[in-house]
Amino acid sequence: MATKPEDAPEHCPGVESDSAGKGSACQGCPNQSICASGVALGPDLSAEQVKARLSSVKNTIIVLSGKGGVGKSTFTSLLARTLAAKDANSNIAVLDIDVCGPSMPRVMGVLNEQVHQSGSGWSPVFVDDNLSVMSVGFLLSSPDDAVIWRGPKKTGMIRQFLSEVDWGDTVDFLIIDTPPGTSDEHLSIVQYLKCMNNLQAIVVTTPQEVALLDVRKEIDFCRKTSIPILGVVENMTSFICSNCKQSSEIFPKNTGGAEAMCAELNVPLLGKVPLDPRLAQSCDEGGNFIQEFSDSPATTAFIEIVSSKYIEAEDGGTEKGRFKDYRNPRELKSFCLVHAKPFIFYKLVGKFPFCYY
């Protein structure tokens, strides 16, 4: 992957290119002589700074989807709140890298908060004692301000977040909320976190084919950049009436929905979350939906996704999972979200692929 200096021209070939500092696009660039000399091909000091800063992070989950509007930010917030509530002694961190559309401050109920800088770096905004958030939304003078940046500027901001935010001595889960697509923000995360061995992805989709079409591209992106995929979550899978309890498909599964796609691409389906109008209202108000609406089918589905399940081995006994290389799709069987470790095929007791660990 060719990287570019922040002040490079739009058509910069990147410092790793053979034409770095020599091509027509390099004429007039302040970095031309440095790139031409080959000095830029030395060790990436920024990546080393990121690695040092995130050395205390045990598990990193990046929430992806090729399609906008499928509920990535909602899923990220619920995942973070559920993990934080599951263990009061854990430390859960949320990083919002949707630079142009940061929604995490509102969704997490910390819209008017500000970040502070200390000798150890930027201090994130705390939602609870063990749940903190960092977003470019905290740096804007108004929530209505537009962020109009090209790729290098976004990359610089993401690098600052990764290398300068003080999350604490130990972080059990760093959950990264991303914009839709496979562009600058996603490439920046891969660039700076490729040296880490704890990066995995959860892909969020809705059931209709117009969403699945882009989600397939996101899965392909993960495989091409060697990001292990924990699994796929089908959001807005149906609407369950609060009165009659009947289920209705708002988005028709003309091609089989996420379940058929996962079977086709050999990716685990982590679960299906139904629609609940109260969830949208809770996100707008920055509330804790899981806590406030514990009777919701969406809450039940979500807790099942992040809760450990017993599994039954092929020989009929119950044992802890044996680990397998999950980077090769042909060898991918199942992956435990709670413990962030893969395990070989087991007959599942319950619907979701979690191990007994």
TrEMBL record:
Biased composition (Basic and acidic residues): 1-10
A GO-annotated cellular component: cytosol
Pfam family, one: ParA
ATP-binding listed as a keyword: yes
UniProt cross-references to CDD domains, sorted A to Z: Mrp_NBP35
Positions bound to ATP: 66-73
Keywords: 4Fe-4S, ATP-binding, Cytoplasm, Iron, Iron-sulfur, Metal-binding, Nucleotide-binding
Binding-site list for [4Fe-4S] cluster 1: 12, 26, 29, 35
Free-text function comment from the UniProt entry: Component of the cytosolic iron-sulfur (Fe/S) protein assembly (CIA) machinery. Required for maturation of extramitochondrial Fe-S proteins. The NUBP1-NUBP2 heterotetramer forms a Fe-S scaffold complex, mediating the de novo assembly of an Fe-S cluster and its transfer to target apoproteins.
Subunit relationships: Heterotetramer of 2 NUBP1 and 2 NUBP2 chains.
Protein name as catalogued: Cytosolic Fe-S cluster assembly factor NUBP1 homolog
Biological source species: Bemisia tabaci (Sweetpotato whitefly)
